[in-house]
Amino acid sequence: MFTRDDIPAELRRHVPAASDLTHPVQGMTSEVAFVGGDTGLVFKRCRDPRYLGWLAHEHHVLQALEGCGVPAPRLVDYADVENANGREMWLVMTQLPGRSLRDELVHAVPSRRLELLRETGQLLNRLHTTELPRQLRRDGPWIDGKLAQARENLAWCDGTAPLLADLHRRRPAPVREVFIHGDFAPDNVLIDGAAGMSLIDWSDGGPGDPRHDVALALRAHRKFSATEVAAFFEGYGISVDDTTRSWFEQLDEFF
Predict the structure, then answer these.
(1) Are 98 and 191 spatial neighbours (Cβ–Cβ below 8 Å)?
(2) How confident is the model at residue 26 (pLDDT cuts 50, 70, 90)?
(3) How do 86-94 and 75-83 pair as beta strands?
(4) Edge-to-edge strand list for the sheet holding 41-46
(5) Residue ending a domain, choose from 94, 118, 135
(6) With 220 labelled, which of 31, 37, 78, 241 sits at a CA distance of 20 to 30 A?
């Protein structure tokens, strides 16, 4: 975990001297801290060479999201620095209110779970029907790019070479690509009573296969009931079959 003194000089102005940094539960790819007081900011640092590109891309996506109407953090500042410990990337953004959808689902009564999953489907539909910002457009099918990246990641990921070969054989038929989040897990959806739902952690956002977001939202190990899955698809507007969702879940083993 980092302190105020670890923050690059060009970003330190966003942390008043009297402010405290608090550190939530940390993920695998970056370190995160909230700035205390009235600033309402989040600092994210990445030092792992494997994930530097992810934070750089999140910076790019947050820039592109300005004015899109998608409920996401607002970009405040960014730094790419070299120091005695190597290369570091830093992202500063606004802190959104609320707690994670995962926590809400754990404590919700059955009727509330259905309501939350229906609203989650609506949120995902809103994203998938948002026009892709011009800055995020790219050439080539999303699945081709992900399968190529999966092979490059074999040295450190949970996926295996036989699984990757199997995914190539069972590759689903293509669909129209849309604006996707790329990591649409309940931990990345925030619930706030006044503001509704919002999305954080945009390191894989951009044009892509909408079924990927759906698969991660309903990942099998979360053990949603058939009624709960139906509520999600009611909000989303269309359904994705179990076999296709499983393919995208297995693809995520490489990331």
Answers:
(1) yes
(2) confident
(3) antiparallel
(4) 21-22, 31-35, 41-46, 86-94, 75-83
(5) 94
(6) 31
* 88 and 108, same domain (yes or no): no
The per-residue pLDDT for range 118-141, each reduced to its tens digit, is: 999 999 999 999 999 999 999 999
User: Counting Cβ atoms within 10 Å, is residue 193 exposed (0-12), middle (13-18) or buried (19+)?
Assistant: exposed
Q: How far apart are CA 169 and CA 63, in angstroms?
A: 37
The encoded tokens of residue 206 equal: 């951009």
pLDDT value at residue 4: 94
Average pLDDT score over the chain = 95
Residue 231 has pLDDT above 80, yes or no: yes
Terminal Cα-to-Cα distance of the chain (whole angstroms): 23
Measured CA angle at 125 (ends 53, 171), to 5 deg = 60
Q: Which domain holds residue 202?
A: 99-254
In the chain, the amino acid numbered 216 is L
- What is the count of structural domains for the chain? 2
* Residue 46: how many other CB atoms lie within 10 Å: 22
The domain boundary residue, chosen from 55, 74, 94: 94
**Across-strand partners of 42?**
34, 93
